[in-house]
Amino acid sequence: MKRRLMILRSITFFTLIILSAEIRAGSNTGNSSCPNFESDSKEVKLSLRRNLIVSSNLPLKYCNFKYSKEYDIVLEGKRYERREGKLTICKDGEISIRGKRIETCFKNGVLPGYGTYLRGKTQTAAVDFFSIAGALYKLYGETGEYNDLNDRLDEINIALSQAETVSEKNDLNRRSYEISQKVNLQNDYRKKILLFSSALYAYQLIEPLFSEKPPEVYSYSDKTNIKFKASNRSVKKAFLYSFFRPGRGQFYQGKTKRGVFFSSIFVLSSLVSLDLNNQYNKDVSEYNLCVSKLNSSTNIADRRKYSDRASLFWEDVEDSKEKRNISLYVLAGIWGWNIIDTLIYGNEYCPDKNYSFNVTPLGCELAFNF
């Protein structure tokens, strides 16, 4: 009898659970709908994310859409700007789409490229991360050399304070002056790399504020029909993006490989130019020190020795100056090539293009359509 009673209780318990689940499901039906997403343009893809990922070309009908819930939404297309935000539909039919720009900026501030990576821009995020990491690694090495020179200068100054003879003090004063010149040059070089690293970091930090806009709603009605406005990619935006940060215009246009190439080669060329400019300044300093010794020497043998050294140092100055100038020309060429490249692409990237830029065996031609 007890066993039958326990079985009956168990059946009753599971029946109540099933009934409560059905009641809960029935109560939620009023909180969901099947909105129809459309666009004013063709070939537009919509991605809607919450627990599941729904991705399809528009028009798209998505059922079980919960009111007052926030959904990650991405609107993109081959000819259109990528727009991302958070979509909410209230029960009264009001639609709210907010951007994720501040959130992306904050995450990029914590870890360079992290917020951009979460937005689905993997290549852009990787370029930002490795560019800043490479610049900081270079800064770390040059800071170590600067500290070593400072330590040598401190040792010489300590020895100078303990020197007893005049000749010893003069020799230590000369060495202190030479090391201090190297310390100043190294410190200037270190500051330039720090400034370059800071510029890379600051750009990826504030970039989402002007390039990451949320999707725009063209029209909607009865909480069921939502029509988005697709924004065509702009040549002016691509030009400006690549003007301030090489490769960014290519990423904006969808030319990912070219974006990676121009971004990487620009950062590498910049670091090489800074290094060659620093070497030029070192050679100039060595030449000036040698000339100073030549002017202060009274011995004929010393003057001849310093004169020969000055000639060699001047050859080094001319050689380093030529290398520095070549690196600057290459850097300027990469920057200019990167800007011109934003104007050279197929019609699949810009449906409203009213000109064409072509390279022919006879040169370059720019044609406008009227």
Number of helices: 9
> What's the order of the H and E elements?
HEEEEEEEEEHHHHEEHHHHEE
Helical coverage, percent range = 55-70%
What oligomeric state do these chains adopt? single chain
Task: Annotate the secondary structure layout.
Layout (H helix, E strand, L loop, with lengths): L1 H27 L3 E2 L2 E4 L4 E6 L3 E5 L2 E2 L3 E2 L3 E8 L2 E10 L5 E4 L2 H10 L3 H5 L3 H41 L3 H46 L4 E6 L3 E5 L5 H10 L3 H6 L2 H41 L3 H42 L13 E6 L2 E6 L2
Helix pairs in contact: 2-5, 4-5, 4-8, 5-8, 6-9, 8-9
Fold and architecture overview:
The protein contains nine helices and 13 strands. It has 370 residues and is α+β, with helices and mostly antiparallel strands. Helix 4 packs antiparallel against helix 5. A hairpin with a 3-residue loop joins strand 3 and strand 4.
List keywords for this structure.
single chain, alpha+beta, five-stranded antiparallel β-sheet, four-stranded mixed β-sheet, 13 strands
Outline:
With 370 residues, the protein is an alpha+beta fold. 62% of the residues lie in helices and 18% in strands.
